[in-house]
Design a protein that fits this description.
362 residues; alpha+beta; OB fold (Dihydrolipoamide Acetyltransferase, E2P); six-stranded mixed sheet; five-stranded antiparallel sheet; 20 strands; 22% helix; binds adenosine-5'-triphosphate; binds magnesium ion
């Protein structure tokens, strides 16, 4: 990746005049044709990263490189990047064609050339029939497409998208996610999208950059991020996770055995983030779907009391507490009604063989 990066943030920090640290030594490589999402909680530095890439914000230190060339000092419109802003920033007094054509106004093109490019861009986003419509007459999804067309009309090398779908309702949002991904594959343009919606990031990205407090926590494919989180923050942030304080009981080339309160978890050695020593304290992560529940004890199970049971249609989530007070969530597929579990009941639980991960305490 390092050698063929299209865009690179190289040790970028951004400290605002107020003293707030927006970015703290961020290094990130984006490859040609990738769909990358920047994901993280509010204030973690997603928009600042995008603004530094686009040139709207100068880094306090570090560089922005495009195919190895330092572009840190280039003005936004001298960079072959384009941005779709969260609020779309369309001009309400202009029609669709004028909005899209605005992206071309700095280029010295003939009227016919402009017209053709505008048409092509609107074709791409499925809005060719709205070319003369006033922006104020369009629906949310249609405005979003106009903003996309305006950003794509200059054929940027990289398209930067800041929460592009956040103004849309859930159904339209899902539909636009699919369209955005399809458009990106068809064009082969590199897309870098900011989102705080993990479902959105997981469903459309090639890679996800998880950020926290101005730093990168982990960069990985959606499935790797879900299956192999490397830090407690990522483990907790992506999906639902039980994160338990544990003590290492035994290590071997094939497994690491830990105790989390009364529960013994044997984790495959490759699922331990570092080489934990016997007696060390660690965190063990187990997804709610990686625990099994039964009514009767065996020598592998531990007793737990159900504090609440929530019905989610295809599954039921139990909130339980083990002796010693450690709390867990357990997701169960749908059962026969005779086996529904209710608050107050005692159940017997165990981790499904081969599940769990061990992280060092960060
Ligand atoms: N112009 C600015 N002046 C001072 N502080 C700023 C400025 N812009 C951003 N910050 C601060 O920098 C940090 C990162 O902000 P940023 O806008 O990048 O967050 P974000 O991840 O996009 O969050 P959100 O999901 O809420 O949009 C925050 O603490 C924010 O308050
Ligand atoms: Mg933001």
């Amino acid at each position: 990746m390092a050698n063929d990066a299209l865009l690179r943030l190289d040790h970028v920090s951004k400290v605002f005049d107020s003293g707030t640290v927006g970015l703290d030594n961020v290094t990130l490589d984006i490859a040609h044709g990738e769909f990358v999402s920047l994901l993280g909680p509010s204030g973690c530095g997603k928009t600042t990263s995008l603004r530094v890439m686009a040139g709207f914000e100068a880094p306090t230190s570090g560089r922005v490189l495009l195919e190895g060339q330092d572009i840190t000092a280039l003005r936004p419109y001298d960079r072959p990047l384009n941005t779709v802003f969260q609020d779309y920033a369309l001009f309400p007094h202009m029609n669709v064609a004028e909005n899209v054509g605005f992206g071309l106004s700095l280029r010295k093109l003939s009227g016919a050339e402009t017209e053709k490019k505008v048409k092509d861009a609107l074709e791409l986003v499925g809005l060719a029939d709205k070319i003369r419509a006033r922006v104020s007459m369009l629906s949310g999804g249609q405005r979003q497409r106009v903003a996309l067309a305006r950003a794509l009309v200059c054929s940027p090398r990289v398209l930067l998208l800041d929460e592009p779908l956040s103004a849309l309702d859930a159904n339209l949002r899902e539909q636009m996610q699919i369209e955005l991904k399809r458009l990106q594959s068809r064009l082969g343009t590199t897309f870098i999208m900011v989102t705080h919606d993990q479902g959105e990031a997981l469903s459309i990205s090639d890679r996800i950059v998880v950020m926290n407090r101005g730093k990168i926590e982990q960069i990985a494919s959606p499935s790797k991020l879900y299956d192999a989180p490397e830090t407690p923050f990522v483990a907790d942030f992506i999906g639902s996770m039980n994160l338990l304080e544990a003590e290492v009981l035994e290590t071997s080339p094939s497994f690491v055995r830990v105790s989390a309160g009364p529960m013994i978890v044997e984790v495959p050695a490759e699922c331990a983030a570092s080489n934990p020593a016997r007696g060390a304290s660690a965190l063990v992560c187990i997804r709610p779907e990686e625990l099994s529940v039964q009514l009767f004890p065996t020598n592998e199970t531990v007793a737990a009391q159900i504090t609440s049971a929530v019905f989610y249609g295809p599954m039921q989530r139990l909130f339980v507490e083990m002796t010693g007070g450690q709390k867990l969530m357990i997701d169960m597929g749908r059962r026969r009604s005779s086996e529904t579990f209710e608050a107050g009941a005692t159940v017997h639980i165990k981790p499904i063989r081969g599940s769990g991960r061990i992280l060092s305490k960060g």
